[in-house]
Design goal:
This is Iron complex outermembrane receptor protein. The protein contains 7 helices and 48 strands. The relative contact order is 0.13.
Length: 929
């Protein structure tokens, strides 16, 4: 190997981790477009002409090559993405071992998976949380519609030129949220012609297909590239997969059948004893009533084959009545929702003068989604007493007033009402207008204005406890003249248009279907997030030192953020059985930034870089500096190092003093040991400060022989003043009777109030990334072997009261913060690619090591279970044919051997480790004209 050739090769792959696990042979299926794809590993791309747009992730310096950057960077071309067979951009994260799961899209009852009612997925580098990874589109911010940027909403996959991921802190360049790194999606702005592609993916019970197109028009002066995509995904329920179709019992307020509080001795119409199924409930009351004269009994049909429930008798039970009724709603809840989405993206560039260009980028995203869940919610708030089934209700077998505790509709309700469907509509708009050019031969400018807006409209149903109580009293049905202050004219209980509702299991399938009106009441919410961003950057050569240029970039940014929440009456008034309360909000803030960057090469083989950014949020400000170096000691060895301080600002809502969210969680009440769903009310905290992190990386790339490379990086993150959301369980454990635990008149915990705070320390994590690659030819056959391994060495989790070692754990202890991720020690993606003329075959192996299953354990408790390792193989074959090889056909299999995910307590599987889809087969066809 000549020194010049070796020098070029070293420069090309010294991009830190150098080869992403899915990076295939550079020439096997090179795109026939003019897109700036990743260079083959044995060549260097020529520098783009000065008048073309230059995007270097992690730098504002136009004349600094990506390969001279010292930060670890993964670069993936459009051809690389196509070889994976992913159905959406977000799916590419499963081939990046440095990404630890995602938020959203998939239900995660244990910790909350984000928005599980629609097709939305986040990035999550290093497992530091979705908010710690900054997602950019062509180097510019996109509004985090779901609290994070939905990767599937950015641009059609067909328009992607490359993905670049910076794997260390980048706050010095981009400001807040770039703690764990940056994922930058770069579109093809120079495409010419027409390209169409379609893919059908068969997943048992949940097939998906997408259709995409791209059109590029123009000449050397003006060019416009438009792309579009339509994607359809069928829903997948827990009952469709063995791993999630298990008995996961609900009890208490979520029981089915429910329980009843007897306030008096049961009696028949003739004042005799009430005997049901051969059991005397009057005698049971006489024997076991408490001092207040009440007794709680389970539904008389609890445990019957018809109800598919389990009767768990109390310790002193005579064999009926006393105890708990357990039923599993697991099968009726979703793994993922159904969704249909349309995405349009356009890039237009106009050279209005030599060396100067105007550009416009525009994106439209629309999604309709349907979440199929259990037909009614649990009673999460009952007030001082539960709903009362009066003794006058002819369907009440006890003959006296009884309180009802349970779901308004059980597993099938009446008339076979199996599901409650929540419908979400997402609309996202993204507009960028800007100009760039050369002021002189040494200086360039860039200025842009960005408007990015996301809106989510949700239509759900909850039980209005007022209408429910009215139906128990005989005023049920949509045509009964019942008003907020009582019965209207002509309304008679159980007569005419007014119906009695029974919550007893014996009546589930025989009641009038119109009573659904009293149980599934529509409620709507609208959530809007908006960015207005103005930014200007000046870069060029400040001075030459000993004949070597000192390049700098200086800039400023003004960002206006807005978050709006609007909720219908049932969400706000507190009468909903499960959801709410919520409050309308309209929150705003302004962020002002200045930043600077300098780059200098004191030697041909040594590049030094320094950057810093100052951001002012009004009530706090922060400075984020960064130093980095890239040294090619000899052409076969490169060393890089970077050190920075990164930060993440509190979200707008988190910095307010408003009620900003209501969720539900399984809470163990330490007063009686009961485990039930309870409301968790989240309030903002105006005193919150940014969470900060010290980030360090050092790595090397070795080129032992021609066509081979090995990169090793050690990385380290340490949070200071990390923003943590209080754990509801920790709050009630700390003070069961305190002001942050809301109890009803009977002393039952109904809600827990939590807020965010700056933890004394915060998560500390470190590890080693190893990337190896060897490519070559044997006769007409080209081949590539590749591997990308991420080893987790340290993952210390701060609970607010103690710090524990989370490596190799699920990190779902009772007091684990929601930001704590599952932490397998090893994540690896390896593969081989073979090409022969117009044929190509790729095989990938994905592996995640096992973790301890600590769900709802106390920190320090002995291990009770493990979530096994996840090891799957993927394969794809591609064939190009026709005039100029303009047609392409690809077939592939994901999870070739139909490997089921390893079992996890309560949730069935762990979404950040494995997926429940099973074998996925797909066929894709594309054409270029």
């Amino acid at each position: 190997m000549t020194n010049a050739r070796s020098h070029r090769l070293c420069a090309s792959i010294s991009l830190a981790t150098a080869s992403l696990a899915l990076l295939h042979a550079g020439t096997a299926f090179a795109q026939t477009t003019s897109a700036p794809e990743a260079a083959p590993s044995d060549t260097m791309q020529a520098a783009p002409p000065a008048e073309q747009e230059i995007i270097v992730t992690g730098s504002f310096l136009r004349n600094v090559r990506q390969e001279d950057r010292a930060s670890p960077i993964l670069s993936v071309s459009a051809a690389d993405i196509a070889r994976t067979g992913v159905n959406a951009l977000a799916d590419i994260t499963r081939y990046i071992p440095q990404n630890v799961g995602s938020a959203g899209g998939i239900q995660d009852l244990a910790k909350g998976g984000g928005a599980d009612s629609r097709d939305t997925r986040s990035a999550n580098l290093r497992g530091l949380g979705a908010g710690a990874t900054l997602v950019l589109l062509n180097g510019r911010r996109v509004v985090p519609t779901d609290g994070f940027v939905n990767l599937n909403s950015l641009t059609p996959e067909i328009a992607i030129a490359r993905l670049e991921t910076v794997l260390d802190g980048a706050s010095s360049t981009y400001g807040a949220d770039a703690v764990a790194g940056v994922l930058n999606v770069i579109t093809d702005t120079r495409f010419e012609g027409v390209k169409l592609t379609g893919q059908y993916t068969h997943i048992e019970d949940t097939p998906a297909f997408n259709v995409q197109g791209m059109v590029g028009l123009g000449d050397d002066r003006i060019r416009s590239v438009t792309s579009f995509a339509y994607r359809n995904i069928e829903r997948l329920q827990n009952g469709d997969r063995d791993v999630t179709n298990f008995f996961n019992p609900s009890s208490g307020s979520g029981a089915n059948p429910g329980a009843f509080v007897l306030y008096a001795r049961p009696r028949t119409a003739s004042a005799g004893d009430v005997v049901i199924n051969g059991n005397n409930y009057s005698a049971l009351y006489d024997r076991f009533k408490n001092a207040a004269g009440t007794l709680t009994v389970v539904d008389p049909d609890c445990g019957s084959a018809a109800t598919q429930s389990r009767y768990v008798p109390a310790a002193n039970s005579p064999g009926f009545g006393l105890g708990a009724c357990q039923f599993s709603f697991q099968a009726q809840n979703p793994i993922r929702p159904a969704s249909q989405s349309v995405l349009v993206h356009n890039d237009t560039r106009f050279k209005f003068a030599p060396g100067h260009a105007l550009y416009v980028e525009f994106g439209l995203y629309h999604q309709d989604a349907q979440r199929y869940g259990v037909p009614s919610f649990a009673q999460n708030r009952n007030g001082p007493t539960p709903p009362i089934v009066p003794g006058s209700n002819p369907l009440n077998p006890f003959g006296v007033d009884v309180g009802f505790i349970g779901r308004a509709i059980g597993s099938q309700g009446f008339a076979g009402t199996r599901y409650k469907v929540q419908r979400d509509q997402v609309d996202q708009r993204h507009l960028v207008v800007g100009a760039e050019g050369a002021i002189s031969s040494r200086w360039n400018y860039a200025a842009s204005f960005t408007w990015s807006r996301g809106e989510v409209n949700s239509v759900d149903k909850d039980t209005d406890m007022r209408l429910f109580q009215a139906a128990l009293n005989g005023f049920g049905g949509p045509n009964c003249n019942i008003r907020f202050n009582g019965a209207g004219s002509g309304a008679v209980p159980g007569s005419g248009n007014c119906l009695y509702l029974s919550p007893f299991a014996k009546d589930n399938l025989t009641q009038d279907p119109s009573l659904l009106y009293n149980i599934q009441t529509e409620e709507t919410s609208t959530n809007i997030r908006e960015y207005l961003i103005g930014e200007a950057v000046l870069n060029g050569t400040l001075v030459e030192i000993a004949g070597r240029p000192l390049d700098i970039a200086v800039g400023t940014q003004f960002r206006k953020e807005r978050q709006v929440g609007r909720y219908s009456d049932l969400f706000q008034n507190g009468f909903g059985a499960f959801n709410g309360p919520f409050r309308d909000t309209d929150l705003k803030r302004e962020v002002k930034s200045v930043f600077a960057e300098a780059n200098f090469k004191p030697l041909d083989t040594l590049t030094l870089n320094a950057a810093a950014r100052y951001e002012d949020y009004g009530n706090f400000n922060t400075v984020a500096p960064k130093l980095s170096a890239n040294w090619r000691i000899i052409p076969e060895i490169a060393i890089r190092a970077s050190a920075s301080k990164a930060f993440q600002a509190p979200a707008i809502a988190n910095s307010s003093n408003a009620l900003i969210g209501t969720n539900v969680a399984n809470i163990i009440d330490p007063r009686d040991g009961s485990l039930v769903f309870r409301s968790v009310l989240q309030y903002g905290n105006p005193s919150l400060q940014p969470q900060k992190a010290d980030v360090f990386n050092i790595g090397t790339t070795l080129l032992p022989v021609r066509g081979a490379s090995l990169s090793v990086d050690y990385w380290h993150y340490r949070y200071r003043s990390q923003i943590q959301l209080q754990n509801g369980q920790a709050v009630i454990n700390a003070d069961p009777n305190g002001p942050n635990v809301i109890r009803d008149a009977a002393g039952v915990a109904q809600s827990v109030i939590v807020t965010s705070y700056n933890a004394p320390s915060g998560t500390a994590t470190s590890g080693i990334d190893v990337a190896g690659r060897y490519e070559g030819t044997t006769g007409p056959v080209g081949f590539t072997f590749r591997d990308n391994l991420s080893i987790l060495v340290k993952y210390d989790v701060d609970t607010g009261t103690l710090v524990y070692d989370g490596v190799g754990k699920r990190n779902n202890y009772q007091t684990s913060p929601l930001t704590a991720a599952a932490a397998p020690r090893y994540r690896n993606v390896a593969g081989v690619d073979v090409s022969l003329a117009d044929h190509a075959l790729s095989i990938d192996w994905r592996y995640v090591s096992s973790v301890r299953d600590d769900y709802q354990q106390v920190v320090g408790a002995p291990e009770v279970a493990r979530i096994g390792a996840w090891s799957v193989f993927d394969a794809q074959y591609n064939f190009r044919f026709g005039p100029d090889r303009r047609f392409e056909l690809g077939v592939g299999v994901t999870n070739l051997f139909d490997k089921a995910p390893p079992h996890a307590i309560y949730t069935g599987y762990l979404s950040s480790v494995a997926d429940p889809y099973g074998r996925q087969t797909y066929i894709r066809a594309s054409a270029r004209f």
